[in-house]
Write a structure and sequence with these properties.
The protein is an alpha/beta fold. It is built from eight helices and six strands; from the N terminus they run ββααβαααβααββα.
Length: 219
């Protein structure tokens, strides 16, 4: 596997050595929701790593037990439904030894489509029971700011709007395995991504649990 040359601009916290605080305010990224709420994630042809399906759910459970505030972006529904449909299609293709493209699977297999819908609804129901939704408005101004993020930071299209939502809601802490967020200044990334953690340590961007300041959410 090719090493990723992360240029760390965010503050980085290693969730394996951190404990959430009651005053913490976190946005939870879509990949963490996927591992925590979708029961068949480990059956995918490219399954999550063991640390992804253990460390992140465990950290979220500690945050909930401690009384930290957890937030979701409604944009995560798009990512979550895409990932679940993709995984369901790949599982079906493997079991039946056939190749199916996404649109054929979506339109020609009504029973499978029903299963996908049920899986997405069940996962999203868990998400909304655990976290509060950000106030989001993707208008022209937000889109322009998103383009600025795209120019300045190495994030994808979904993350452009998630970053703007975090900013507008006064949240600076995100729990994620996505190394792209490490390129964003002014936020704190809580992660177990070893590539990000190694780069952050080398670049002196690791924040010790005893030294970090908790996030504030705008009232």
């Amino acid at each position: 596997m090719t090493n990723i040359n992360y240029s760390i601009q965010a503050n980085i916290v290693d969730i394996t050595s951190d404990r959430p605080q009651a005053e913490d305010v976190f946005l939870i990224d879509s990949n963490v929701w996927y591992w925590m709420t979708y029961t068949r994630a480990s059956e995918a042809p490219n399954p999550p790593c063991p640390y992804q399906i253990t460390l992140y759910p465990n950290y979220l459970k500690m945050a909930l037990d401690t009384g930290s505030a957890l937030y979701l972006s409604n944009l995560s529904l798009a990512e979550l439904s895409h990932l679940i449909e993709k995984t369901q299609r790949e599982i079906y293709s493997r079991v039946h030894n056939i190749r199916i493209n996404p649109k054929t699977y979506r339109h020609n297999f009504p029973q499978e489509r029903s299963i996908v819908v049920s899986e997405v609804e069940a996962a999203w129901s868990q998400v909304t029971s655990l976290a509060k939704a950000l106030v989001e408005n993707i208008d022209e101004a937000t889109t322009k700011q998103g383009l600025l993020h795209f120019q300045q930071e190495k994030v994808d299209g979904y993350d452009l709007f998630i970053l703007e939502s975090m900013k507008k809601n006064g949240i600076s802490q995100i729990i994620t395995d996505d190394g792209d967020f490490s390129s964003v200044p002014g936020i704190t990334v809580f992660t177990a991504n070893q590539g990000v953690l190694a780069a952050a340590k080398e670049q002196n961007k690791i924040i010790a649990s005893s030294d970090r300041e908790v996030s504030c959410v705008r009232s």
